[in-house]
User: Which sequence fits this backbone?
């Protein structure tokens, strides 16, 4: 809405200046005055075109920045997924290691219980007898040697087993500590990645807003240029009239609706008003058979724009393809330009100058498009009609 308001204000300003510029009787001006005005308009258009080129270059730079930023966001998303994957594995490893520690602690507890029971079994000989009592309770030297050897082996085996279990437990606890440290590090990395992602998203929104502002500036400059082109055409016509006074001066009343047949002419300033009307509804969605600001198709938009200029023309592409007069020397602002889309002359728009036209495009709604490159260049069939 703001964009349309700015464009409307710009239209009123430019057209208003243009009206004041030409309010003085052209017939009273000398040929020198007209040529001076023409030069001034050409200088203004040159300045606008320079600003347009800069705006287009800035938009191109922003598009490159957006592309690079999107790649950075993609890399950040990938890093975040890798981090989440590593975090899950670490969490699973921690759970497994904690279970391993619990198993070792349980094994140690069981081993202590076995040793305790074994000691009790040695002591059960009618009383509370220790290992030495068991050894010295031998009935013979051979039995003594056997008992000493058995007790020694048992105690050594138990000691080795307990030492190994304790060592295993120590290693597992160390592994668990390392995993906990890794988890803390991964959580820190995740925080940094999320912060970077948030910053990139902010930058992306800033670039999009900057692009939007530049596009609005570009649209405003294009509107000014098209209006200046219209004024320049009027001066050029006046110069022609001054050098060829035999041209008929009969014209339709400025406020009347003029119905165009195949060769009748519209009021001299109608195309300027039609272009201005078109800019006032930029962004209006494309609607099949739409003829009002709530939604337009291509021919409905062209017919509506010219109706706002006081000119009645058909609202179908087939009828518009024969309206006014055929142009063979190249389009001028306000001329109807036709494109072979789904059929011959299947799409129509209003030429605004500089190789661009304004129309209701089915992909973007009412918008300015370039017919010197890309899709529209390939579809332009050279058919141009002049309705003024």
Assistant:
């Amino acid at each position: 809405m703001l964009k349309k308001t700015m464009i409307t204000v710009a239209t009123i300003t430019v057209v208003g200046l243009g009206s004041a510029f030409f309010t003085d009787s052209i017939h009273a001006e000398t040929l020198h005055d007209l040529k001076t005005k023409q030069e001034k308009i050409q200088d203004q258009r040159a300045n606008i075109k320079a600003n347009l080129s800069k705006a287009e270059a800035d938009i191109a730079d922003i598009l490159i920045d957006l592309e690079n930023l999107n790649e950075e966001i993609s890399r950040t998303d990938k890093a975040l997924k890798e981090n989440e994957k590593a975090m899950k594995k670490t969490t699973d490893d921690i759970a497994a290691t904690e279970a391993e520690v619990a198993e070792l602690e349980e094994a140690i507890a069981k081993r202590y219980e076995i040793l305790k029971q074994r000691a009790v079994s040695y002591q059960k000989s009618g009383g509370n007898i220790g290992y030495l009592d068991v050894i010295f309770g031998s009935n013979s030297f051979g039995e003594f040697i056997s008992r000493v050897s058995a007790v020694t082996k048992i105690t050594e085996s138990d000691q080795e087993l307990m030492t190994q279990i304790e060592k295993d437990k120590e290693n597992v606890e160390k592994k668990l500590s390392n995993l906990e440290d890794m988890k803390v590090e991964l959580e820190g990395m995740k925080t940094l990645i999320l912060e970077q992602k948030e910053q990139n998203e902010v930058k992306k929104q800033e670039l999009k807003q900057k692009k939007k502002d530049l596009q609005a500036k570009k649209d405003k400059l294009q509107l000014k240029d098209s209006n200046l082109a219209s004024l320049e055409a009027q001066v050029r016509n006046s110069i022609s009239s001054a050098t060829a006074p035999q041209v008929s001066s009969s014209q339709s009343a400025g406020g009347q609706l003029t119905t165009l047949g195949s060769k009748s002419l519209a009021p001299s300033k109608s195309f300027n008003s039609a272009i201005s009307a078109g800019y006032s509804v930029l962004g209006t969605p494309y609607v099949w058979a739409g003829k009002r600001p709530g939604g337009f198709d291509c021919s409905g938009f062209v017919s509506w724009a010219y109706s706002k200029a006081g000119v009645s023309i058909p609202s179908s592409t087939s009828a518009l393809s024969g309206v006014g007069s055929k142009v063979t020397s190249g389009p001028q602002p306000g001329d109807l330009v036709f494109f072979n889309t789904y059929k011959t002359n299947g799409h129509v728009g209003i030429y605004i100058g500089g190789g661009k036209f304004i129309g209701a495009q089915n992909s973007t709604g009412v918008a300015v498009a370039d017919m010197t490159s890309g899709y529209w260049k390939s579809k332009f069939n050279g058919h141009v009609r002049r309705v003024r």
Q: What stands out?
A: The longest strand covers residues 347-353. Residues 275 and 334 are 7 Å apart (CA to CA).
